[in-house]
Design a protein that fits this description.
Elements: E1 5-9, H1 15-23, H2 26-32, H3 40-53, E2 59-66, E3 72-81, E4 85-92, H4 101-115, E5 120-126, H5 130-138, E6 142-147, E7 160-166
């Protein structure tokens, strides 16, 4: 059974919930470029930046919210690339992983993007994150290539695995 989640634009009031469930997670901090010393003040700024951008054309960044608790449990977004292409990314808070939340959120995002006439979707994750690879595959994405960390000249980091999905619009 799919997790009961909602994806919606971030609101300024989401900062505390996001901080508690996601904002202290090393995976999120790395993905977002925030420091490991990030506190609630920095998360408020992060949320306010996203809230201020809502309504811009081709801006796809959403809070992932538990339908049961109303808590913000993650973030999902897409970077629009011209010609109907988008690069998707997501993070789910540690307490909510392996419950179908990432898959449910990604399916909803793909529906939104499809309505916007976006038909090619890319995603990537580290090869040491099999759960994320499963999310991408469950949502119909196919593994296309692996880029070793050594090629990216990042010593001690995992390889990146790239996925793609193409649909008719």
């Amino acid at each position: 059974m799919a997790a009961e989640i909602i994806i919606r634009p971030f609101q300024r009031e989401d900062a505390e919930s996001f901080y508690q469930n996601v904002g202290q997670d090393p995976a999120f901090l790395e993905m977002s470029g925030l420091s490991e010393n990030t506190g609630l003040r920095e998360i408020r700024e992060y949320i306010e930046q996203r809230a201020a951008l809502q309504g811009r054309e081709h801006f796809y960044d959403f809070a992932v919210v538990s339908a049961d608790s109303g808590e913000v449990i993650g973030e999902i977004n897409a970077a629009y690339i011209p010609k109907g292409i988008a690069d998707v990314g997501y993070v789910i808070g540690p307490a909510y992983r392996n419950r179908g939340c990432g898959e449910a959120a990604l399916r909803r995002l793909l529906e939104i993007l499809h309505q916007e006439r976006i038909s090619v979707f890319y995603g990537a994750c580290r090869n040491d994150n099999p759960a994320s690879m499963r999310v991408l595959e469950k949502c119909g994405m196919k593994k296309t290539k692996v880029v070793p960390a050594s090629i990216r000249r990042i010593e001690g980091e995992a390889d990146l695995v790239y996925f793609v999905k193409a649909e008719n619009v």
